[in-house]
Each structure stands twice: as structure tokens, then as C-alpha cells.
């Protein structure tokens, strides 16, 4: 049997157990062991760590670590905490997660397009009023971030008949999607979009990306969906844009602090839908299969999977 | 110019004006006139009436009427009121309406699959709790009624990855859909479905179709979407099934009386989402194009479009 693989996680214990079981099934020839249950001798032999919200001290306690596999797509905390002389970090890029995220984007785009928040408000008031139906072909959905998740969402929205625009740091081309890059392109895309969907990674560049000045160039009455990371949107600026009637509604799945504090203003805001970070949960089985493929290639020929650029942060 | 076509409607005046304008654009060689603005001489020359919720006396006041074109897909009131010695009734079958309805079915299927009602309840309580994600491939959506709307919905749900079952009065085959007919088939389909979608026409046979006994065979925790007609579901039986916890949630777009009475219990029920009959509004332009094609064929060679079977009721 190979040297053990360490699983270092700080997540719900039932999730941890599910990962451990899925990893064991996907890699029967490997020995995946919880870090906290490893002996010093075992730790010294670990080349690969699989991590979810790990304590950096635990990662540092593996002297022969060669690379780190994140269970999550978002690695901003790993990048911040493990950067100094750390081993390469591999993000979770799972086609099943892209599918799930694209589905979530379509589901909550329909939620806004079909005026579900307005009908739910009316219901509480016993009010029967029909809003004019808006065909997808008359609405533009603008996607911030065209990585694996943003690209999958763009394709799915296009298939559903929406006009799709997309913005990314570096210029990209996608069939059927009007793409933009750089600061001017960001403003152009925000101006034309009826619904804006955030799917950028959280980096130094995207921290606070959607602040008052950029929210103010959005279309009057536009909606916002944040499925990326809380700090990409400046919460107070978003609330101001909703309160003054410039934006109609925000669907937020991510927050500056999670869980969202019980006294946060967002919970009770009538133009905000709060979701508890559920847009695209990791699928234990498919994630384990992706990791098994990465580990298999490394064991076969020492090849490291494509890793995070620590300067770009993703 | 041909003999005038009568538009007999009892709908919102702005909708009436939109229809009139769309019909004029779609049939520039025809003279579509509001019934109430017609002279007796004009009424005597009318062969075609286009109707939406018409007063039967007005239809009877057209002595040379050959056929009636409904602006709506649901014709249960026309069938009831105009049946005696009446002219053939042609339903609105508009591919754009099928598309819109299929979209509504997918949108509110996602609403249930993604636990949006539960997250909205949690939000009001300031509660952060994640429900286990349910993949579409693990859920069966059962469609009652496989006409043009039900078929379009089945295809769309299948494309989105759901398992799809369908029930219709007469046996039908649809690729990728597990189809059922007759009473036993109805029970089998209700038993296996996580979400049931009503898209049957309202007829003597479907009036009260979903009553206590049939609701009780549905899967515990299942959801119900009624986009057909209110009386297809027995409201009190549905409320009982929700109250006892057998069913999880109902999305209702149609009611025994519309608008829903201000004091109806449904408005305030936490497991009911009330919509004001908005699932698939008629598109004035595409509906006018469908009518123009029907009228054109009739003018060219006297051919009547396929009409409603008055015994079946649709």
C-alpha cells in the first residue's frame, strides 16, 4: 500500500465521514487517514493532503508534503494561509459541481425572471396582481467570472433562451455569449444586464468588486445573484442600492461571515433572498472520483495536477 | 375585404386592445371588429368569431357563424356554454405558449427541488440550515396530462435531467418518459412521483380528479404544482394532505374562483405558494399568428382547423 494520504478538515463530522467513505471507495489502493488520527511516523510519510478548511498548523506538520488537494472550488483561505513556501494547491474542478452550479444559476434566474419574490410578497398581502411576462429572449443575464462554473452557467442560460453576457479578467470567447474583459468591459456588461450573476473567485482583485459606483451603473430594476463569495459584493452598498429602489432584488448564497449572524439586516430585508450557502454543494462521489484521477496520475508518473496560481489567487 | 371577424371578449381592456392590434397586424387583409361595435348588418355577415370569455348571448347573436376561435387553450367554459347546436370551437394551440408553460413547469419544479419555500421560511426566522441537495436524476416528476402543454413540459424536464413520468386519458408514448393511462396507471404514477404537475384540461372526467384518496397515494413529502384549472384539485382535500404533513408543498396558479377570494385560506397557508394565473400567459403576437394561419386556410379553401371534441371536452 502507498504512503498514507492525510485528510485535514474542519467541517461537519457527517460530511467528513461521507468524504472519507467516498475517497476509500474511489481509491481502494490508497490509505486515506484523518490527520488527527495519524501517528507521527505516518505524518512523516504523507505526500498528499486532502483539505477542507484545514488548520494551517496541521498542514505545516507534514514535513514531506508534495501537494494539497482542496475539496472545494474556492481556495481563497488556503491561498492566504498556506502561501509562504507552501506546496502547490489543487482546486476542486468537478464537472458535476459545474452542472449543479449552472442549475442553481438557472433556477434562481427563473426565480427573478418569473417575479417569484414579488408574488410571494403579494401572497402575504392577499393581493392578486399579474406582472407582465418577460420572455428570456428579451432579458440579458450578465455573468461575472467565466471559469469552469461561469462557463457552465452561461451555456445553460443560453440553452434556456436568455441573452448571455460574460465578463472575465482575461479576454475569453464563448459561442453565443457576448464577452467582456477589463474595467470598461465590466461597466458595459453591468449596464446591459437585467440580472447579474457573480461567479468570480475571491482574490485581492475581486474583493469588494461590486461597490456603490459599479452597482450604480447597473440597469434600474436589475437583480443580483451572488453565488461566489460574500466579500465580492459590498453588502452596505448593495443594501443602499436596494433601499433606494435602483436594484429590485438580490439572491445571496454567500456572506462576509458564514453562517450569517442572527442579527444581520439581510435576513429581514424584503428585497433579499438569503440562502445558506447551498447553490452548489460538493458531491462526495464525483469529488472523490476527481481526486482519485489526480492521485492516480501522481502515483503513476509523479505528475502534479494543474495548481492554483498564488499570485492570481485561483 | 372579407366579411368581418368578430372579437368577443370579456377581458381587461388593455389586453383586448393588444389582441386587436396584434390580429390587425397578423391579418392585414381581414377586418377584425369588436362585437359590441358591430352594426346588425355586420353581425349578420360574421363567419368567424374570436373569443375570450365571451357572453354566450353575443355568440348566439351571430346568425351565420361558422366557427369559433378561442384565444385560450382552456375551453371548458366555452364547451359548457356554447355546446347546444353550437359551431365548432378551435382551441388556441400556440407553440410559444407550450414553450412558456414548459418553462414555468421547470421554474417551479426547481423551486420545489431546490427547497426554496423552506429557505424562505427559514429566512423569516433567521435560521441557517442546509437541506441535502437532491439531484434531478434522483427525482421523478409526474405530469398529469400529455397534450401539447404536458408534452412540452415533459421534454423540458427530461432535458434538465429529471426522471419524467406522464399520465394521459388515452395511452401515449413519449421518448424518455414513462407513460401511463387509465386508473391503475394514475395510481402508479402518483405513487412514484416526487413532484406532480397538473396539466390536464378541465372536463367532466378531470373535475375533482385529485381528491383525498388519490392525494393519499402520493409519495410522503411530495410536492404538487397545479398549472391546469382549479377544480382539477379538490382544495379542501389538498389542504388536509398538507396539514397532516403527507404532502410538503403546493404551487397553485389556478383556483376554483379567480381572482382568489381575499379571505381564502390558501393565501396564508405556509405550505402553499399562490400565483395569480401567470404560468403561461398568451403571447399576443404569436397567438395572432396562429389565428391568422387558421383564418387563412379557411378563407383559401373553407378548411376548418382541428376543433374541440365536445364529448371529451377538449
Strand arrangement in the largest pleated sheet of chain A: 8-7-6-9-10-11-12
The quaternary state of the protein chains shown equals: homodimer
Order of helices and strands of chain A: EHEHEHEHEHHEHEEHEHEHEEH
**Major sheet attributes of chain A:** 7 strands, parallel
* Chain pair forming the biggest interface: A-B, 40 and 41 residues
Radius of gyration of chain A: 21 Å
Spans of chain A of at least 5 consecutive residues whose pLDDT stays below 50 are none
- Globally, the shape of chain A reads elongated
Beta-strand residue percentage of chain A:
15-25%
Residue share in helices of chain A? 25-40%
Structural class of chain A: alpha/beta
List keywords for this structure.
alpha/beta; 16% strand; homodimer; 314 residues
Verbal overview:
The structure is a homodimer of 314-residue chains. Chain A is an alpha/beta fold and 314 residues long. Chain A has helices at 13-26, 40-45, 56-60, 76-82, 95-113, 116-125, 148-159, 182-192, 212-217, 235-243, 284-301, and strands at 5-9, 32-34, 48-52, 67-70, 89-90, 140-144, 163-167, 177-180, 195-198, 222-226, 247-252, 272-274. In chain A, the strands form two sheets. Chain A has a seven-stranded parallel sheet. A five-stranded parallel sheet of chain A has the order 2-1-3-4-5, with helices on one face. In chain A, helix 1 packs across helix 11 and helix 5 crosses helix 7 (148-159). At the A-B interface, helix 5 and helix 6 of A face helix 5 and helix 6 of B.
List the helices and strands and how they pair.
Two copies of one chain form a homodimer.
Chain A: E1 5-9, H1 13-26, E2 32-34, H2 40-45, E3 48-52, H3 56-60, E4 67-70, H4 76-82, E5 89-90, H5 95-113, H6 116-125, E6 140-144, H7 148-159, E7 163-167, E8 177-180, H8 182-192, E9 195-198, H9 212-217, E10 222-226, H10 235-243, E11 247-252, E12 272-274, H11 284-301
Parallel strand pairs in A: 1-2, 1-3, 3-4, 4-5, 6-7, 6-9, 7-8, 9-10, 10-11, 11-12
Helix pairs in contact in A: 1-11, 5-7
